[in-house]
Design a protein that fits this description.
Layout: E1 4-9, H1 14-30, E2 33-38, H2 42-52, E3 56-60, E4 78-81, H3 85-88, E5 94-98, H4 100-112, E6 118-122, H5 129-144, E7 150-152, H6 160-170, E8 178-182, H7 185-197, E9 206-211, H8 215-220, E10 226-230, H9 232-248, E11 256-259, E12 262-265, H10 278-290, H11 297-301, H12 308-319, H13 323-339, H14 349-352, H15 358-369, H16 373-379
Parallel strand pairs: 1-2, 1-3, 3-4, 4-5, 5-11, 6-7, 6-8, 8-9, 9-10
Antiparallel strand pairs: 10-12
Length: 380
């Protein structure tokens, strides 16, 4: 009989979706079944376990202390996914935790490229563990480089307008240009709103980068928002792999691992060069939004008021490549995300990326990556 894993979670964020994809991907490889439960009380956990009696448990613990170890879970091999490092460091549970230093380092490197006069961190109003840990790692990285950091401790308020008001009062006290790392993309959105309210130019006066790479937030902001993408999908796979080890072991000695991926997704909020040419900025944002709709370079060129030849030169001087290369780059990036989804048919991907010719896209993908799509899936 296949193993059954109970997966407890409380959120539906972009990061949680990636974790689920990783869980299902690794479980499918092992021929296990995942049962997902959105529960919020210990009583609900106990009732769920009594009914399903799973072989193991994975808990998405990013929501805070909702899922502290409870007696009803002690009889099952359990892995806490993306949990508070304090819990993992207790030596009592198996867990997969974020490598906050990798995230902080990636954010600092992106901001420092532009030599800001002030470097700052904006955390989440409710001091969640992930916000505190990111601030500590960011400050530690900068301290080792001899650089000061300014942090804003927002009031514990869930009122968005109150947050904007605090940010709008604080930003003018900092010397510009300002490089700001935020706890989440949602907070980056608030910083952006406050900056625009003050008439600050992004990214000339203020550079902004957040965490999670929530594309709904980052791609729809104007200007678009840069972000650090932790390896959430890989974390889901790691959780199942640890659970498999616990199930095989005669004794359940806690296993703790970090997921260390931290990929910088650069968008307009830290892409300073293209701000010198507003038409190039508009073209880049348009491409990121519409590349998978099958747009052509000719359609992008309509955003410029000069000749095609001059527009191409302006675009290349900022990005280092052509408009068509940028379109293809976004399409390849999208294809990679689709390929790793285990139930996604490969022959449909070219169409989802904006290409009517499957053969052409397959050649393009191999030219850019050195691998066919099926080879990419096997390796990733």
């Amino acid at each position: 009989m296949n193993k059954v894993v109970a997966y407890f979670h409380t959120t539906g964020t972009a990061s949680s979706v990636l974790k689920v994809e990783g869980l299902y991907r690794e479980a499918r490889r092992l021929q296990w079944t995942i049962r997902r439960f959105d529960v919020r009380t210990e009583k609900q956990v106990k009732e769920t376990l009594a009914f399903w009696n799973p072989d193991g448990i994975v808990v998405d613990a990013a929501a805070g202390n909702i899922f502290l170890p409870v007696d009803s879970m002690s009889h099952y091999p359990t892995v806490y996914l993306d949990c508070n490092p304090n819990l993992a460091e207790s030596g009592k549970v198996s867990a997969v935790v974020q490598d906050t230093m990798s995230i902080a380092r990636a954010a600092a490197v992106e901001l420092l490229k532009h030599n800001p006069r002030t470097i700052a961190y904006v955390g989440w109003p409710e001091r969640q563990f992930w916000s505190v840990r990111r601030e500590e790692a960011f400050a530690d990285y900068l301290r080792k480089k001899g650089l000061p950091i300014h942090s804003l401790r927002l009031d514990d308020s869930k009122n968005h307008r109150a947050v904007i008001k605090q940010l709008a009062s604080w930003l003018p006290t900092l010397q510009r240009p300002i490089g700001i790392f935020t706890a989440t993309d949602a907070m980056s959105e608030s910083v952006l709103a406050a900056a625009l309210q003050l008439g600050l130019s992004v990214p000339d006066d203020i550079l902004i980068i957040g965490v999670d790479d929530d594309e709904f937030i980052c791609e729809n902001a104007r200007p678009t928002l840069s972000s650090i993408a932790p390896g959430f999908e890989r974390a889901g796979r790691q959780a199942i792999a640890i659970l498999a080890r616990l199930m095989r072991a005669k004794t359940r000695k806690p296993i703790v691992e970090k997921f260390k991926e931290a990929t910088t997704i650069t968008r307009s909020s830290t892409r300073k060069n293209d701000r010198k040419d507003k038409a190039v900025t508009a073209a880049l944002d348009h491409i990121r939004t519409h590349a998978t709709d099958g747009i052509s370079a000719a359609q992008v060129l309509k955003l410029f008021t000069c000749s095609r030849c001059l527009a191409e030169r302006r675009f290349r001087s900022v990005t280092g490549h052509s408009i068509l290369d940028e379109i293809h780059g976004v399409q390849i990036e999208t294809a990679k995300k689709l390929i790793v989804k285990p139930f996604q048919k490969l022959d449909v991907i070219p169409h989802l990326c904006g290409h009517s010719s499957t053969a052409f896209f397959q050649r393009l993908f191999k030219r850019e990556t050195g691998l066919t799509m099926s080879e990419w899936r096997k390796q990733n």
